[in-house]
Amino acid sequence: MFRNSFFAATMLLLVSFVCRATDTGGFHYRDVTTTKAGELATLLGDDLLNIDSLVVRGPINDADFKTLKHGVFSGKMSVVNLQYSDIENRLIPAKAFYKCTGLRRIIFPDNLEVIGGDAFSCDENLRTINIPPGLKTIWSNAFAHCTSLSLDRLVFPEGLEEIGMWAFEETPSLKCEVVFPSTLTKISRYSFMLSGITSIVFPEEMAYIGENAFAWSGLKKLTFPKNFRAVFEGSAFLGCESLTEVTLDVAMTDIPYNMFTSCTKLKKVELTDLIEIIHSGAFNNTDLKEIVPPRYTYYIERFAYANIPDCKFLYFQNFVRFIGYRCFYGTKLPEKIYCQALSPPGCELIDAYDTTGKSVRMSPFQYDENTTVNTTTTVYVPIGSGDLYRRTPGWDYFANIVELDTSDFPAAGIDDITVDGIDVGDGVVYDLSGRRVANPVEGQVYIMNGKKFIYRM
User: Fold this and answer.
1) Which residues pair with 91 in a beta bridge?
2) Cα 148 to the center of its chain, rounded Å
């Protein structure tokens, strides 16, 4: 009798230690210690659907994750703390908490290595997570459509090797800086599309950035390491409507298609001289004020600079050989265009119809199908090449083509040619003929203190 009573008391004490329950201010949580994987459902019993929060200590496996999902999906559980757990294979299983809209917080153990596909997808009320220092892989859709996820800073640990497709897609509340480690060499397609991230720290070791990887995200400024050599797929930054400035002084030879399309606030872009090709739609529907393809750019594809509302400066350097159809379609061209090439770059024409149904052959510079001649822009070309430009299809769209000594061309480097206003007390302003100018006109080329510049209001 004594032995049975002692045994019963001991078991009761053990259970109360292993599975502690607390009710505080209307919040009911449990702190559970497992001795083997797969017993979480037994330990929780009827409390599974009634507790708000749970701390799990000890080994757990896929069966335990199914228990946890049931507690969140069908019960009241909103906070799951796995910090002290020993997860089998150090892996959060695929769809572990898929569509668990009641989940608000998850805490991972430090030794977690893999977060499975769709593990937290569509958890629209998940607000905060921690990124374990041992994490190596985040599979596709892991946190996709977690629309409430918000962090002060998203820092991925050294050792992380892959972020899968759509991993953080549609996370608009994730308005923070993202820091990628040197071990991460690949950003998969669509991985941060429609996220709220505002800035990125890229490692030099990055080798690949996939299509639409950061499309429609909240990025405001983009800067890359000097020795950055990643291969970009198209549309990587498509639709980033808050992006205002990009510096791409890196080892790359082309701007992929639609790379910055519909970045409607993008005003300033600095590109490496190594760029040879600007692909279709690269800067379509941006707000660039000054367009200067890099020094060694020879091929500019269709719609590359289309739909730019107020271009103030356009300058083609000597290597440009081809301009694709509708390259500047819908773009308001500046009053002056400069082209260094002695031989006019070839223009790809396209047959179209105006509003009357009349067939027209469109120049790459043509605003739309109804604008057949440009009389407001003057094109400056090297001395001796004016007639050739006038006879070249595409360039014949311009009524005003003027020869100018290339030494009188403004410098191609944007920072060297722009002055925001003039303090007349600091110097006298002259036009290119050496005449003093009292009232400079915006967009015109002048000389001050021995240097040419374009006047800006």
Assistant:
1) 114
2) 20
pLDDT in tens, 252-272: 899 999 999 999 999 999 998
149-175 residue pLDDT tens: 999 999 999 999 999 999 999 999 999
Is 321 in contact with 298 (CB distance < 8 Å)?
Answer: yes
3-state secondary structure of 378: strand
Q: What are phi and psi of 416, to 5 degrees?
A: -85, -15
Considering the entire predicted model, what is its pTM? 0.83
- Residue 332 CA: distances (Å) to CA of 2, 13, 352, 366, 446: 96, 80, 20, 10, 23
CA angle centred on 21, ends 17 and 24, rounded to 5°: 140
Find where tokens 């608000």 sit. 104
Q: Where are the beta strands (DSSP E) in 218-317?
A: 221-223, 231-232, 245-248, 254-255, 268-271, 277-278, 290-291, 299-300, 313-316
H or E stretch covering 389: helix 386-391
Residue 79 near residue 105 (C-beta atoms within 8 A): yes
